[in-house]
Give the backbone structure.
Amino acid sequence: MSSPLLIDIKFENSRKFDRLRSTLGGREVIDINDGGDHPEAFPGVHYALVWKPDGKLFTRLPDLTVLFSLGAGVDHIFQSDYLPDVPIVRFVDHTLTTRMSEWVCLQCLMHLRQQRSYDRQQRERLWQELPQPQASDITVGIMGLGELGRDAARKLKTLGFNVIGWSRSGRPVDGIEVFGAGRLDPFLSSTHMLVGLLPLTSETRGIFNRDVFSKLHRHEEIASPVFINAGRGGSQVEADIIACLEDGTLGSVSLDVFEQEPLAEDSPLWGFEQAILTPHAAAVSDIEALGHYVARQIARFEAGEALENVVDRSLGY
Ligand code: NDP
Ligand code: OXD
């Protein structure tokens, strides 16, 4: 008999849950957040799909065999002290990747074309041309060259930016210079716009700090250096970002992720003209694409084929 799929996602409405269920080919789905009366344990449940799960959930799943993440990131899963030794499959999906690249390209262009300054000029009814370097005058350095970083790199290149990248392994990526983990300083000193697309792990926590920002390359004609982050807020030190915006070490930022989410109403970050903030919405998982993906992975698993996009637990991503 096929195992149910248990879900621990806090859906904002039941329509999303119904859309997810409709993609799962009739498999029984248990939504533990539906307000129903659920048993203490779920024997016979082999699969679970989670987003920021209750840490103790796994103690209730004695037969768990494969764990799926609603998102590309899995730091939310590693926070549990009760994580069983089962494969963790993260979500890798074309539409997610495409939308992330749209967000990254949009931010780079916003800063290149000084849109925030033009917004102010519009409010002030001021007719004034600003300097206009072209994309090829700017080097975008991407930290994290995985599924998302590689696609963003390709699209930024198409827009004309010089693109370089930095990753743990330094694995080559077509068409861009890649710096390995030990070559962070030369990477930073060539970079005008720093893009963070890193997973949150013990190694990347707090990596975007004053020391890193102070090594970036300034372009005199735009509000630079620029820091753009859509990886995880835990990788950035917000007190340093604020201080660096205040003293000019950073010219402008775009942030989609924050140390605490939602961002506190009294965070000074809200108030900077040169800070573009979005509410962890750079690339939201499409619920139907997710359902199809999970169904396909379960079918592979049950046919004895390898699961895809399994997290390396020793690396944490
Ligand atoms: P991948 O696992 O495909 O890529 C991760 C990249 O980071 C790899 O290039 C990896 O290096 C690099 N990396 C990891 N650890 C280190 C380290 N210690 N030092 C240097 N490089 C490191 O992830 P994705 O591209 O799919 O996603 C990246 C992150 O984006 C997710 O983990 C998630 O946090 C975030 N995200 C945010 C979204 C949003 O809406 N804001 C949406 C989706 C994802 P190597 O190539 O050597 O392995
Ligand atoms: C993800 C996210 O990890 O949306 O996919 O943050």
Q: What stands out?
A: The chain has two domains: 5-93+285-302, 95-277.
